[in-house]
Amino acid sequence: MIHQKKTGLGKGLRALLDDSDLPENDRKQQISSESTSLGSISFVKINQVEVNPFQPRTDFDIEALQELSESIKLQGLIQPITVRKAGQNSYQLISGERRLRASKLAGLTEIPAYVRTANDQQMLEMALIENIQRENLNAIEVALSFQRMIDECNLKQEELGSRVSKNRSTVTNYLRLLKLPPAIQAAIRDKEISMGHARALISVENPDQQLYIFQEIINHGLSVRKVEELVRQIEKSGKPKSSPTKKDGISFQYMKIQDDLASKFATNVKLKLKDKGTGSIEITFMSDDDLNRILEMLDW
């Protein structure tokens, strides 16, 4: 009689590691015993893994997580997460929170992991670098990660550039994003404007002028080249070429209020003015949790 090997949830990496006819328990024991060597893989219980408190990434696409979860159900998790030992039966995540979340959605009870030894600063640096190297971080998340590495890992910009394989000017441009008004930072985070637009805006020192240009981008859908031309006009004349009153009637005074509200709620806020001093306030939220956060701030 021919016995088929059982396959199950999370079989992807196990299948890659399985080069023998050992029973399942023996293979687990073999893998576990080899985990003391650098770079080896262990299977750890998923409920023993604590989320990394130094995780710089704040935005996880629910739909993308669900897609990854479905893939894990079919193929198993191929790329291990990285953890450090936090106690006798507990681990702390260093990198791979997206994979961890998707694995939980897929119903895994254990997950492949590299187990490393790291102190808090090393853990933070590894988590930041691992996330910075991902292409799906938005520019503000990258900038915040850079700033944390400088502040919490005591790195200079040159050292930071070397760690993340970016030149100093690139690092500087990202860090300068954090000096833009909050409304513009929110628009960069939400991908309402591109990094090209942002680079043009950070070359302007006056916040009122930055807000004016930003509103022109939003109102007229300006290309990066058009924004660069507008910046040159402002630098040459010292003021915007056109009136500071926008197409939708928002003056710089109202833009300051809009910007302060965006800063308070940590999201994009728009004032919509009508005749005779009436209007409305539009507050953007990104998820149910984000809405609840804003409602709590409003004492709802």
Taking pLDDT < 50 over at least 5 consecutive residues as the criterion, the unreliable ranges are 1-11, 15-22, 26-39, 241-248
User: What's the N-to-C terminus distance?
Assistant: 67 Å
CATH architecture of the largest domain: Orthogonal Bundle
What is the percentage of strand-forming residues? 5-15%
CATH secondary-structure class of the largest domain: Mainly Alpha
Sheet/helix structural class: alpha/beta
Q: Major sheet, described briefly? A: 5 strands, mixed
- CATH overall fold name of the largest domain: Arc Repressor Mutant, subunit A
**How would the global form be characterised?**
globular
Integer tally of domains:
2
Q: Give the C-alpha Rg.
A: 25 Å
Mean pLDDT across residues: 76
β-strand number: 7
Q: Order of helices and strands, N to C?
A: HHEEHEEHEHHHHHHHHHEEH
> Counting H and I runs of at least 4 residues, what is the number of helices?
14
Q: Which sequence of strands runs across the widest sheet? A: 1-5-3-4-2
Share of helix among residues? 40-55%
Protein name: Chromosome partitioning protein, ParB family
InterPro entries: Chromosome_partition/occlusion (IPR050336), HTH_ParB/Spo0J (IPR041468), ParB/RepB/Spo0J (IPR004437), ParB/Sulfiredoxin_sf (IPR036086), ParB_dimer_C (IPR057240), ParB_N (IPR003115)
Keywords: Chromosome partition, DNA-binding
Family: Belongs to the ParB family.
